[in-house]
Queue: 2 jobs
Job 1
Amino acid sequence: MDEPMADAHSAQVKVTFTTTEADFQLPESKRQLLVPADIKRYGLSRILNSDLMLDTGSIPFDFLVNGSFLRSSLEDYLNDNGLSLESNLTLQYVRSLIPPTFEASF
Amino acid sequence: ATHIAEQEERQLRDYDEALELWSTFQTKTQPLSQSLSSQLRLILTPTQSTKLSGSFRTGKRLNIKKIIPYIASSYKRDKIWMRRAIPSKRAYQILLCVDDSSSMDDNNRSSSGRLALESLVMVARALTVLETGQIGVLGFGTDVFVAHALTNTSFSSHDTGARVLQKFTFKQEGTDMIRLLRKTIDHFRDARLTQASSSGGEDLWQLALILSDGLVQSRDHARLRPLLREAMEQRVMVVFIVMDDAKENKKGHSVLELKEARFGPDGTPVIHRYLDSFPFPYYLIVHHLEDLPGALAGLLRQWFAEVNS
Ligand SMILES: [Mg+2]
C-alpha cells in the first residue's frame, strides 16, 4: 500500500457484510464484495461509508470476524487462522464505540 | 514436451462415496443429458457438404472437364456429373476443466462445487452417448491435474465416473486460471499432434469447457487475455461456464451482483462490477442445472456459425 497505484495488482478476498443495526442495512445486492486483501478496519469503514454503499459520510465502523474484532489486515487474519484467499469471510459491522483517540491502536 | 503432473499425494474422495455420487447424479441428470446430446448432435454433426465433386452418371452439376472426353468417346464416358461429397468427418477433443478450489466448497457456503460435479456428469454422459470423439477431464486450483486422460474411453461405466469424482474434493487453496489455460493449450497441442499421426484428413475441433464459480483474482484478468488469444489462434474454443447457484438463501450472492472495491490514488474507494473485467469472450452463467443444456447448445451453435461464416 506504499504506492497507491499498486492497489490494482493486489490480491483480493471476498467478504460478505452483515449487521444487526437497523439504521445501517445494506441492500442484498451490495452485501458481498471483493476487497484488497491487505485492507484493515479503516479501509473497510471507508468502503462502507462510500456513496455506492451506505452513503453515510464518515461514520467509524468496527468489524467482527467469527465473533472477534478485526485488529489486523484481512490477509493477516486469514494467515493467522490457516485460511486462504479462497475463503468467503463474513464481516459483521457495528458502529464503532471506541473513542476516536484510541483509533490509532488499530 | 508438456506434462500435467498426476499428483501422487492428492487426497481422494472415498471410492464408494464417489460411486454413489456418480450414480445419483447420473439418474438425476438423465433427462437433461439426453436433451443436451440431441441438441449437440444437430450442432456437432455436419449435415451438408459445401463442395461438389466426383464423376457420376447423374448428379447436381456438370463437370466441365469431362465434357470433351465425353464427346470424344462418342458419349460412352458418361460420368460427367458432380455430386455433393460426403461431409468431411469431424473429430472432437473435448476437455472438461473443473474448478477444484476451496471457494467451490460447501464449507465456504458455496454450492458451486456440487453444481459443477452434477454438470460434469451430465455433460460427460451426453458426450458419451454422442460418441463424438475424445473426452478428457482436468481439475484445477493452485495446480492442474488430469482427472481423466483425453482418450476414447468414455463414461459408460459408473466406475470410470466414480474414479473421476474421487479426485474432486475442493480443497485447493487457490484458483490459478492462468496455469489452467496454459496447460489446456499445451495439452491440446500435444493431443493434436498425436491425432494427426494416427488418423488423416479428419477435421479436428478442440473445445475446453471450464466449470467454475468464476472467481478469479481480478489482477489475473489482464494476463488471461493473451492466453485466450493464443487459444483462438490454435483453434481451441474455450467456454467458461459459471456455476452460480441460485437456490434458497442465495439471494444477493450471484456473481452477477458481485462488485469489487479498489482504492484510487487519493485513497477514495472505487467500486466496479466484477464481471466487467472478466476476460472470457464465451461465458455463460448457470443458476440452475436445467439451464445448462439449452445455454451450452445455444453458445456452441453461435460459435459454429461464426467460425463457418
Ligand atoms: Mg476458487
Job 2
Amino acid sequence: MYKIVRKETLNPSVTLMEIEAPMIAKKAQPGQFIILRVHENGERIPLTVADYDREKGTVTIIFQIVGKTTQRLNELEEGECLQDFVGPLGVASHLAGYQKVAVIGGGLGTAIAYPQAKELHRLGAQVHSIAGFRNKDLIILEKELTACSDRCVIATDDGSNGTKGFVTNVLEGLIQEGNQYDLVIAIGPLVMMKAVCDVTKKYDIKTIVSMNPIMIDGTGMCGGCRLTVGGETKFACVDGPDFDGHQVDFDEAIRRSRMFQEEEKFAREADCRLMKKGE
Amino acid sequence: MPNMSLKKVSMPEQEPQVRNKNFEEVALGYTPEMAMEEATRCLHCKNAPCVNGCPVNVQIPDFIAKIAEGDFDAAYDVIAQTNSLPAVCGRVCPQENQCEGKCVRGIKGEPVGIGRLERFAADYRMKQGKETVQKSEPNGIKVAVVGGGPAGLTCAGDLAKLGYEVTVFEAFHTPGGVLMYGIPEFRLPKEIVQKEINALKKLGVTIQTNMVVGKVVSVDELLEDGFRAVFIGSGAGLPSFMKMEGENLNGVYSANEFLTRINLMKAYRFPETDTPVKIGNKVAIVGGGNVAMDAARSAKRLGAEEVSIVYRRSEEEMPARLEEVHHAKEEGIQFKMLTNPVRILGDENGWVTGMECVKMELGEPDASGRRRPVPVKGSEEVLPMDTVVIAIGQTPNPLIKATTPGLETQTWGGIVVKDEAGQTSKKGVYAGGDVVTGAATVILAMGAGKNAAAAMDAYIRGNQ
C-alpha cells in the first residue's frame, strides 16, 4: 500500500500529498506522472509528479479538488493509504542545454511547472517564472517558485495580488522588455496553454506544454489520451506528456477533455448527495 | 459401449433476449448428470489426437474417464497437472481448432464437448472450495515473470510447481491481463479468474501489481537483482487505429479502451464504480475478431439500440470464433459485411455523428490466403452513428523493447524468439504469448508460457 506521509492544504481547493513509494521515487524525473486509485471501485487518474525525494522514498502530488475522485482523495489523511499508485510514467522533460527559460504555470499547473523551474535552475539556466491564479486566495508555491527563479511574477486575474491580468500579458511584457528566451514552458489549463502558444508563435519561441488528457492505463494500452500533434496522432501517456505546443491541436484536446463531462458531473453530484445523507 | 449420440449434450444458456441486457455469464455449464452423459461419448482413442491438439497437453481422455466415473475431483486433478487455468480454458479456448478439432467423433457428428467438460470439472472443484495445492519444496532460486496475463500466469505456475521463487510483475492494479481487461464478464466471470490466480498464489507465486516493467524497473535490473531468468509475457497491448479522418472525435474508442473501461474498471456498474463509458444508441464496431464480438455484445448490454459489426471482408473470412458470432447474432448484433469505414464524421462540438463506409468486393487471395477485399467505386454511404469502436487488432507495447538493450524485436514490435521454448536474443530472458506472436489466443499464450517455464528450468539447472 502507498501511505500518505504528509498532507498539506495549499489553498481551499488544492492539496499536496507526499506518498510513500520508494521504487517510484528512485526513478521519477521532472515531467513524468503517476496514476492512482483511491479505492477498490475507484477510477485511475493521472497526476504529474510535483516532487520526489529519492532518499526518503516519497513522491509528492498536488491536486485540485474538481470531481468525485479528487474529493475522495482529499478525504484521506496522513497515515492512510492509497489503493494504487503506479509510475513513473511518460517521458521525462528534456531540460538540459537552455540559457534562459520562461516557466509559466496556470493555477494548479504551477505545481507541475515548479519542478521544471527547479530542475532548470539546477542545470544553470536563467529562470523567469510566471504563475497565474484567479485571485490571491488561490496562490500556491510562491515561496518555492521564487527560490528557484531569477525572476518570479505572480499574476491574478482580478489583481488581488501581484500583477493584474493573465500570464500571457506578463509573458508578452517580459518579452517586450527585451528578455530573450530560448524556451517557454507552459503548464496549466488547455485554454491557457493555447493562449501562451499563440503569443510565443508570434515571437517564434520554442514552447513546451504538458498535456494531461483522460487516461486509463497510462502505458499506451487504451489510446484514450490520444491527441493530434503536428498532424499525427500521439498518445500523451507514452509519447508525452510534454509536446511542442506549436504543434498541438488544442481545439481537439479541449473537445476530448469534455468527453465524460456529463458523467463526471453526475458522479460528483451523486457523491455529494450521498455524503450529505450520511451526515 | 460408448454413447453414440451425434450431438454434444447441450449446455444450458441464458435466453438471448434476457442475456443481452445483463452481464451475467451466457453459458451456464453442465450439471453433473449432463457432464457424465457427455463424458460417455469419448471413445478413448489410443493415440489421443485431442491431446496433440492441446497447447498445454491436458490428458483429455483420462480426465473424461474420471468424469464418466463420477469422480469429478480426480478429473480436475488430471487437468491441473498440466493446465494452470482450467476454468478459464474451459470457457475461452477455441476448442474447435484444437482438441475438439482433432476429435474422432467430429468426423461424423459433433466432437466430444471437451471444453464444456473441462469447465465442468474446474467449476465443480471451485464450488467445493477444496484446497488442491501441493506446494513444492522451495529451491530458493528467484525467477521473474513480466506480465500477469495467460502466458505469464502459466509460466509462473509451472515454475512454482518446480520449486522456484516466482514473482510476477503486473502493470495494472489487478493481475489477469486480457482475462481481466479484455474478455467480458458474461464470457468469463472475473471471480473465476481471480480464483484461478489465488490458486497460483497458494502455490507460492508472488504477484506485484502496479509494476510497469520498463518504467519502474527494467529487465536488466531484474537480472541484476538476483532473478536468474526472466519471462516476458507482456502481451499485445497497443491498439491499432485505422488512421482515418475523424478517429479522434469524441465517441470513438479503441476496443482496448472500451473493454477496459467496461471489464477491468467495471463501467457497467457506474456510478457505483467511478469509471464511466458512453454508449450511445447507434454503435459501430469496426473489425471481425473475437475482440470485436466482445465489444459489440458489451455495447448491446449497456443499452445501445443498434449495434453493428462493420467488417471489410465477408463473414467467411471473419477471424472470430463461430460460437461468438452465433451468440452475437442471437443477441441482435447486426453484421455489415464487405463494408469498410473511410472516415468518421462529427458535429461542431466534436462528437461522432456518422461513419462513411465503402462497399467492398472480394478479389484475388492476399498474403493471408484470404481473398483481398477491394472497394467498389461510388458505393460510399454515411451510416449514422453515435459511437465507433475500433477493433482491428493490437500490437506489442514498445515499453520493454525500448528499455531492454540487446532484446531483438520484429519491425512490428514482436519479440524475436529462437525456438518454441521462447529463448530471446538475451541470455536468461524468455518470451511468449502475444508479445511474440502478435494478438492470438489465451491458450496459445498459455502453451508458450508452459514451454518457456520448462526451458527456463533447464537453463538455470545448466548454469548451476
